[in-house]
Amino acid sequence: MTGLVSGLRRILSERDGCLGLLFSVAIVLFALVGPFAAPNPNRIDVKARFEPPGVAHVFGTDNLGRDLMARTSVGTRYALTLALSIVVISSIVGSLIGIVAGVAGGWVDRGVTALFDIVNAFPPLILAFALIALYGKGPVTFIVLVTIVFIPQFGRMARARAQALRAQSFIEAERLLGVHPFTVVLRHILPNVIGPVIVLASMNLPVVITFEASLSFLGFGVQPPKSSLGTLIKDGFVSINQSWWPTVAAATVLAIATLGATLLGESLRRVLDPKSGGAR
Description:
MetI-like fold; mainly alpha
């Protein structure tokens, strides 16, 4: 608990950390509270089509008269849920695979490395397109398939960390004493991998948020009637000559969410990784 408080203080002592935390908290609150301030995001009112931002509709309305504040809030919540799910699952699965490969060595290590190389051989967006086209566009399927794209990053980092620790003399001493490899992993390797995994996850979160928005914008992500920031931007582009606010509202929220996650991730990296430099 003391370490957590100390880390939070270090983050708050940095300009980037304060801004990142402020933006991130604001986005989370908007995602949680927005639907209560502007309920029923799917309510159609043809008489209120393309109303500009104002008192009645803070973000304006879309081509069906739906309140954009409510829709953007729900889209933000859905986008954050998808991004966090992908980052958490890929970090856990990738780290476990990497640790097993790094500790086991031999054919296990070579096989895992080959799989990672195959995944990394394809551009992430192209690989995601292919997987989603083959297996469908449901939310669970989407999370699983995009997670596959990001697993190698965590796996490679955990593997390198495990290999470095396995070569240490104290690990070799425990092995000679007959300590079970699982015990060695829990006692020495896993605690030394958790910190870098958290840093990499925090750095990947804004990437995944943008990645999900890109896929949804291109029609490979969230499908109607659900909406995310990417689908809202895409829907707004259809009528951007008639009304600019649907696209701008979702794009602004996406930019703030990405910027907040990036700044917070950079600050967290400096806190957890002393080699990266001091606070700014």
